[in-house]
Predict the structure.
Amino acid sequence: MKLNDKGMLIVMSGPSGVGKGTVRKALFEKRGHRLDYSVSMTTRKKREGEVDGVDYYFVSREEFEQRIKENKFLEYAEFVGNYYGTPLDKVMEKINAGKEVVLEIEVNGALQVKDKMRDAVMIFIVPPGKKALYDRLRSRGTESEEIIKERVEKADREFKLAHYYDYIVVNDDVDNAADRIMAIIRAEHAKTERSIHKYKKLMEEK
Ligand code: 5GP
């Protein structure tokens, strides 16, 4: 599938605790973009402060599995005992409207997207060090020590798949990380394969 004339799909992954959500929010606050976030669906329990339809669509396992059968996901994966997936219809609507759609998803799902949409821009966010990862997961205060350990082990496995991504962005500072991602998006817009058809049309004008 080609996205040339439509919007752009931007996939952001990175280990749990790397601060993806914070970087994403900082990115959306920057000016001069057409970014739109794709809200995922999950069977995970709602954390305090999370809002249904904003952070995630929270559904039961039965409902999620029904949607899998009906091919309603662009991708989905199981992550530490819960399902997470990207609703296909919503993403396509946004892309067809020319938006730059951001997916914040784990690696197995991201690889499914790369397979289906070759023009997707794949960005992997890394922490400045492992300690930063532990500190951030603990400070969240929402998960038990056992789950934290599980998430850090999962991070080790995720790092091994980082070479499938187009870009690596270090989250040493939230604003710097968001600036780097914005620079990547601008550069992607200027890529010949995305932009040459527009200029060809212009040059054909008398
Ligand atoms: P959390 O439970 O911390 O909100 O998310 C756990 C992991 O699931 C994170 O790495 C997050 O990026 C990922 N995730 C969130 N939504 C989706 C989705 O729709 N699909 C996939 N594959 N992963 C997702």
In short: The CA atoms of residues 126 and 170 lie 5 Å apart.
